[in-house]
């Protein structure tokens, strides 16, 4: 476990950028072509810290892959979150632990726009399992957030996300890495319900509740879509009951 004590940054993105710049002896906020990159290493590898939708980097990824340049996308997955809510006068109103946990499976939707690049030898996606503290500021009325993504207005705004620890990491580079998202117990020929069942029964971390597991497994159809687009599985012309049968390539 890497404990982040020596960084006084107040931003998850900024802290990770500094950590990776130090680790790979790189320079931050560097211009290359028509893009400004988070980090360019001494070996001219591009490192991008992306705390939200990975597919938002599609044009940048495509640009550097076309130039045969290595690019590493670092994406934090929040597996533990402490929520601190403050009043407008900066008084701590509450502190609690969020029950939600993110995994690679919950991040699949953010990969749909770049599926054609996954498995490229010059692209790696580095998922960091992290613990953070989320800072919320209470508002007088229910409000929309900055990205306007709330379906329902709430009486607070998230003002910061602070990195506490990096617990582990998973690196995806080859197509085989992505294929490993399929459970080992899954047979060569399978149906979507069988994939769902295998995912539910796989060895999840002990601190995952049944709700956490179901929140990950619900993306099983998206996993099928992604791996099919990557030509790692294919849909056969046969059915088992009402479900199509897929084959692992």
Quick gist of this model?
With 249 residues, the chain is of the alpha+beta class. The protein contains 6 helices and 11 strands. The chain has helices spanning 12-23, 58-66, 175-179, 192-201, 210-217, 220-229, and strands at 2-3, 27-32, 35-40, 46-49, 71-86, 92-98, 123-143, 154-172, 189-190, 233-240, 243-248.
Number of strands: 11
The low-pLDDT segments are 1-9
Largest sheet: 8 strands, mixed
The SSE order reads EHEEEHEEEEHEHHHEE
Radius of gyration: 20 Å
User: Helical amount among residues, as a percent range?
Assistant: 10-25%
* Rounded mean pLDDT score: 93
Number of contiguous helices: 6
The share of residues in extended strands comes to: 35-45%
Structural class: alpha+beta
Q: Globular, elongated, flat, extended or rod-shaped: what is the shape?
A: globular
What distance lies between the first and last C-alpha atoms, to the nearest angstrom? Answer: 36 Å
Overview of the structural elements:
The protein is α+β, with helices and mostly antiparallel strands. The chain has helices at residues 12-23, 58-66, 175-179, 192-201, 210-217, 220-229; strands spanning 2-3, 27-32, 35-40, 46-49, 71-86, 92-98, 123-143, 154-172, 189-190, 233-240, 243-248. Strands 1, 2, 3, 4, 5, 6, 7 and 8 form an eight-stranded mixed β-sheet that branches. Strands 9-11-10 form a three-stranded antiparallel β-sheet. The longest helix has 12 residues, at 12-23. The chain is globular.
